[in-house]
Automatic annotation (TrEMBL):
Substrates-to-products reaction catalysed: L-glutamyl-tRNA(Gln) + L-glutamine + ATP + H2O = L-glutaminyl-tRNA(Gln) + L-glutamate + ADP + phosphate + H(+); L-aspartyl-tRNA(Asn) + L-glutamine + ATP + H2O = L-asparaginyl-tRNA(Asn) + L-glutamate + ADP + phosphate + 2 H(+)
Underlying gene: gatB
Species for this entry: Sphingomonas metalli
Keywords: ATP-binding, Ligase, Nucleotide-binding, Protein biosynthesis
Taxonomic path: Bacteria, Pseudomonadati, Pseudomonadota, Alphaproteobacteria, Sphingomonadales
Class of this enzyme: ligase
UniProt name for this protein: Aspartyl/glutamyl-tRNA(Asn/Gln) amidotransferase subunit B
Family under the similarity heading: Belongs to the GatB/GatE family. GatB subfamily.
Function, in words: Allows the formation of correctly charged Asn-tRNA(Asn) or Gln-tRNA(Gln) through the transamidation of misacylated Asp-tRNA(Asn) or Glu-tRNA(Gln) in organisms which lack either or both of asparaginyl-tRNA or glutaminyl-tRNA synthetases. The reaction takes place in the presence of glutamine and ATP through an activated phospho-Asp-tRNA(Asn) or phospho-Glu-tRNA(Gln).
E.C. code: 6.3.5.-
Amino acid sequence: MTEQTYRIQGATGEWEVVIGLEVHAQVTSNAKLFSGAATAFGAEPNTQVSLVDAAMPGMLPVPNRECIRQAVRTGMAIDAQINRWSRFDRKNYFYADLPQGYQISQLYHPLVGEGHLDVSPDEKNPDAVKRIGIERIHVEQDAGKLMHDQHPTRSYVDLNRSGVALMEIVSRPDMRSPAEAGAYLTKLRSILRYVGSCDGNMDQGSMRADVNVSVRKPGAPFGTRTETKNVNSVRFVMQAIEHEAKRQVAVLEDGGAIVQETRLFNPDTGQTRSMRSKEDAHDYRYFPDPDLLPLELDEGFLEECRASLPELPDAKRQRYEAAGVSAYQAGVLTAEVEAARWFDALLEAGAPPVQAANWVTSELFGALNRLGKAIEESPVSPSQGAELLKLVADGTLSGSLAKQVFEIMLDTGQSPAEVVAEHGLKQTSDTGAIDAVIAEVLAKNPGQLEQYRGGKEALFGFFVGQTMKAMAGKANPAIVNERLKAMLAQS
């Protein structure tokens, strides 16, 4: 069964899962949404808190232009409607990590309206595309954090995150499998990182997802949904969906009803558990924030945002494919912005696209994985990679010699030319030298020679191997094959 027709098999037949994601992405900026306080990850508790963040009397919020700019650029990157007029609202509720007693958000008039993402749930079939609608992106301030494990009888409050700028990116309930949700979240994270509006570090909490799941019989109306809060990895989102959908099917088939509630995901067990009921809707008493004027965006601001956008993953992938790179490799190369930038630098240094893609996705990625390094930490630079590929293309190095040179480059940081000169790894295409070695190999193996001339042509590979071994892998394989055929044909 394909992921496009993902179904849960129950005792009463097939069930379909309906999924929507609300992604909270921390905006990359120089300060918080309404104050100048820093937002560095891992700072000591309560060291990045301004008087505004702490809700001291008389403090007034001032919107951070960079946060608004980054949210607009994100909206443009997903082909969304940018609302020239938007407004901040107060969402009123009382909790210990919310010093103001309300959160400044956007309910009725968000900054960004409808957009979409096209995703490929099956990595091996990138042309099978599913369009996921995005309902809105609004900006809001984050709350602080309660710390329950610092004291046996008390909870402490860390307000470092209080006022941090978030984009809440709300999808439509268009996803029908864990794979589609995983592909959507992966693609969204990739775009945010290309744009530079969020670093996408889910393990640090700068991007997290609320997962809405319901089940129904195929073609039936939507069922009651649950919301699993603050899931912080693509894999965990997929696990949460699978567990929650199966749990709901089991409840319904047992004659029960799904309760609209908020749930939490436990990564250790792969299960969700109830956190609080949502049967009675909270009355947040939203109203326009009286301290903030509406946001009005002029054409000059929008044009500056549009002009600042980089080449996005889909456009970059299409460019690579047009240059001859396979669809699968193009997808791999564009998945992470750092890899795409490295590959672009490799092409700019003169590397041929197809050979470059083959080398990066096999040799370079394999070596970096072995070393435990990210591509931006690669001991081999793009210009050195291009030089290595050039030496292969002009016949200076064979494929096997190039691998030896590359390994030495990883260890030493030397250029390919320096490695070749120092270790004498240059490929030889001297037919005289190759002929002499072939003659010696044939003389040393009369039995195999007789069998070959008696019709056992598979022994040709044996003679090639012996010749390459005798020349320490430095002979040009094409010339070895050519000269060996000629000399074997001689009576």
